[in-house]
Amino acid sequence: MDIIGTLLWPLKWAVELLLVGWHLLWTAIGLDPAAGLTWVLSIVGLVLVVRAALIPLFIKQIKSQRKMLEIAPQMKKVQEKYKGKRDQASREAMSRETMELYKKHGTSPVSGCLPLLVQMPIFFALFSVLNDAQKSKAGVGPLNATLAVQFGDANLFGIAPLHTSMQAAFAMTPVNWAVVVIAGIMVILMTSSQFITQLQIVSKNMSAETKASPQFKQQRILLYILPFVFLFSGFAFPLGVMFYWLTSNIWTMIQQFLVIRNMPTPGSEAAKAREERLARKGKLVNPNGEIIVVNETTENQKKTTQRQQPMGKARAKKQQTDGRDK
Which is it for strands 291-293 and 155-156: parallel, antiparallel or unpaired? Predict the structure, then answer.
């Protein structure tokens, strides 16, 4: 076994466990165990479990990004302090002060990439499982020889093998146009979801200071470049892997929408929109992002007034007379 295979072994075992578990569930409710749709739904279930498990890391990523924004002015001071100094002592001092700043605020640039860093080995583990299944080779865990053959021979709609890529489909004689069309549609959906996710961040979830920085221009360029990655990956990856990637992209897009709406970057357009929504509900947001209820007493008084019965003129005059007598 090679080094990469050894490192991926535990992840492959976990991937197979989730994949086979979902496959057993779909089979139990009546789906054909050898059908491509059953295995596609199993892959979708695998993605949902993996992404749900990564939610704590995603929240940690958001908090880390917030802290990085908070310490940005201090980081700038450190950079200006050692600007133009190329000697070894200055570089070490700058690095030391930067690390102390990260440590003091409990953050680091790496923590903002945790979800991606964790997902990539899982993705490669799934790719390895699919590659083995293509050869009807039993996996390292619950994916036994029988299931491996079923997975390797699974065809979506009976015409599109899950282990086949667009590249392989074009190499067939005749060309498997079913795989080409399905892969093409998935590439479009993957590219669109990636573009929408990045567009949400760039257009709504960046502060005015960030938009004025050189990094924003780079982000804008990436907005149009990154989606094209799927044009190349969609050509080479088998359909099974593409279903994993597409489902993960859709999850990311929805998750990003909810985060931008409810936990926006301070000073961004999304943050202002959230404050306006809360203000209409009689609530405000303090600098820490906490919600403060205001005018609660006034609102209660209004409700009490609305519940009071209307009073006739005779009754009102009698109450005034009684009050003067007292």
Answer: unpaired
